[in-house]
Fold each of these.
Amino acid sequence: MGNEIFTDNAKFTPYWWDEAPRPEIGSEGIPNAVDVVIIGAGFSGLSAALTIARGGRGVAVLEADRPGEGASSRNGGAVGATLRFSFAKLTKMHGLKTALRFYSETREARSWLYDFIESEGIECDLHRVGRFIGCHRPKDYDLLGRDLELQEKYLGTEGEMVSKAEQQRFIGSDIYHGGRFLREDANLHPGKLHQGLLAKVMAEGVPVLGRSKVNAIRRENGGFVLQVGFRSVRTRQLVVATNGYTGKETPWLHRRLLPMQSQIIATEHLAPDIMGQLVPENRQLGDTSRLHCYFRASPGHDRILFGSRAGAAEINDRRKSGRLLYRRLIEIFPQLSEVKITHSWGGFIAYTFDHMLHLARNDDIFYVAGFCGSGVVNANYLGHKTGLKVLGKPNSQTVFDSEHPTLPFYTGKPWFLAPIVALKYWQDKLGL
Ligand SMILES: Cc1cc2nc3c(=O)[nH]c(=O)nc-3n(C[C@H](O)[C@H](O)[C@H](O)COP(=O)(O)OP(=O)(O)OC[C@H]3O[C@@H](n4cnc5c(N)ncnc54)[C@H](O)[C@@H]3O)c2cc1C
């Protein structure tokens, strides 16, 4: 293959949009007043809206772009009981009791999503195939093993450590120093999940309005007035569900999130024998590198979708970011060196200063955000919990309703991320 890694008709939009295009919903029908407004029509905003509507309250969702245009229809579709800190690390940091509270609820959240998809009959290619995480460095094998031991003992996690000699059972690559398989994880088609969720919300009669960016929020008579273009929308209660796309309109949240990009590429169609060799049994895949690669087969098991952080400097040029990702893909699967790329895209995730997800209430506004790159389960689940909070239900309690920290002088612009990403890149390269 020459230098060109992209096919002639390569797209710089998510692969998922081919089958689940973003709906063209405009701002027509925007209400003058409604009981509850939700800002953001991703998983968290829609999940909150569904719960609130089914609880009997009037609710509208305002979305700056097309519904689902944010991370919710751009992600890798990996489903897990995932927090940024491992169970072993959380135990070391905060003690067993606290770690158990966080991890038990994260496991509950994953089950909640499985039940939700099943009971609502949402067709989103959910496959409970488990996840294999390859060890980037030899010492990661012991770290993952110790963590798994603790998880098995205290949480009942089902998994196994896989030696380097055995890893071809899970992945057609020799690059890793063994790995860990978690049986209860899954993957799905995020575009279809979003589409299904949106259909459920709209079926409840909830107005979900696209191209309706909230530009300003002011308080009036114990409620809020939102400025959307030249229109004003009055509401009694407000939920902000904007995660990695949070702007200055909501300064409290803006100061608490570290937005960053994650990117994905999709290969062209691959023959069944190659796919069977690279991703036997269609597992979700990932690794322990600092920039964290996550990858998988497409739902049809006929191409590889490969994601990672491509580096802060490359974020807005999908050709450049695609090339960087491609290099990493070829390191893992040299068998693909003649294969071209058909899609390259990215989107914003949001980290937090304590690496935890948060549902918070400040000054009478509900905020649900900070999924640290793992929002397929967590955004849907915490969106639902936020809905319950708005309804004032006792079962709205969650361990993630905790202090949401910021840092003095942080204004919402994480200028320090570029050097951190560069450092992580070199640490990965040198195996440190
Ligand atoms: C490339 C990529 C890969 C990922 N892979 C995975 C994965 O495999 N597994 C996993 O669990 N998670 C993954 N994630 C993370 C996951 O997608 C997110 O955590 C989750 O989708 C967040 O959902 P959300 O609804 O909170 O936010 P989003 O889906 O980002 O929605 C926020 C919405 O708010 C809107 N908005 C912002 N400001 C305003 C305003 N002023 N007025 C109106 N609307 C506004 C935005 O337009 C946006 O649509 C990935 C993310 C990316 C980008």
Amino acid sequence: MSDPQAFQAETRSWLEENCPKSLLGKGGGGIVGTWGGRKWKPESEDQRLWLERAAAKGFTAPTWPKEYGGGGLSKEEAKILAQEMRAVGTPPPLIGFGLTMIGPTLLQYGTEEQKLEHLTKITRGEIRWCQGYSEPGAGSDLAGLQMRADDKGDHYIVNGTKVWTSYADEADWIFALVRTDPKAKKQEGITFLLIDMETPGISVSPILLISGSSPFCETHFQDVKALKSNVIFKEHAGWTVAKALLGHERSMVAEAFGGGGGSRRSLADRARAYLPGADAEGPLPDATLRQDIARMEMDTRVFGLTMQRARDAAKAGQQPGAESSIFKVVGTEINQRRQELLMHIAGPQALGWEGEGFAEEELQGTRDWLRSRGNTIEGGTSEVQRNIIAKRVLGLPD
Ligand SMILES: Cc1cc2nc3c(=O)[nH]c(=O)nc-3n(C[C@H](O)[C@H](O)[C@H](O)COP(=O)(O)OP(=O)(O)OC[C@H]3O[C@@H](n4cnc5c(N)ncnc54)[C@H](O)[C@@H]3O)c2cc1C
């Protein structure tokens, strides 16, 4: 970047001119925002316009190479763009597993053809992805997966069931782990395969969650034809790709929930609304709560800064390693503590499920609290992350 100040000024004026005013300050980030895809129905014309303009500029995936629809920005430029988006108040134009999971994995392991086909559609928000890893008998023991892909020359015939497939009912493509060599050692007989969800033989049934929504699905495959040209890296070598993607996933979950991204109303502001005698400016009239809030905000801030360092390293081309397990444990536990504290702050008002006696933010808070229970399970449980940290970060014996 020749002149950071010129880049900053140019970026700010582009954002001011191109992000529709109605979207400014709308926040978003994490799992809230524009997911795109064939089935996507924009909430407004402005939301669609913002995605279209940002994609044309390469700002949906700022550091990806231009030939794949990215912005080709350097690490420093991407940092300035993120700062300016925060300053102007623009929501992210696009979110989703394409940008955070399969995209970075394809950049590392995809062929040129696969990158040109899939990455460009991701950056334009045309295709939404879901993740087909877990099965009824394979969660923590992921390598024990049984979904079979039988070799038929230039294609496979896939049979089996995936479970906990987030948003499978809204996704267009799935990145799936399949067993291509049933006789090999379990990690060595797995292939990483991309499958169009419209292929005949795929059916999806939603699973209702404790939070009242159903982002989860069971995804059934019955004699599904999947082309070998959609194998990522090499046949039977899918475990290597799967682990790389999990590194991206764990960083994404940590960041989405742990306070590294998005915008939030401060805990102190939330508490003021519930504490008798609290004024708009002064300290909260409850010393214990004040201390809990201060500790929580400090932990969130420190975690956010640590994630920022990891993001910088990723933008400089470094792949996330076993340390993404540390981020996952810490980030998800911070979010669970935060949700508990918010429940404590709102008291009985935090116990609403529906009805006029509760504000929208309170009803959402109850659901967010329940949703946060899954944070320490998705992308690999905290127990499993601690095993990885013990072995691969600390080098402890088995
Ligand atoms: C919100 C959410 C979203 C998800 N989205 C997806 C998705 O999109 N796609 C997908 O494929 N999967 C998804 N999952 C599934 C997730 O990856 C699995 O739930 C997770 O890997 C755990 O597997 P399991 O549920 O089978 O639990 P199990 O593996 O049966 O574990 C049960 C318990 O045993 C413990 N345990 C297991 N093995 C060990 C061990 N070796 N040492 C110590 N303790 C152990 C676990 O920590 C856990 O407490 C999602 C899960 C959640 C909660």
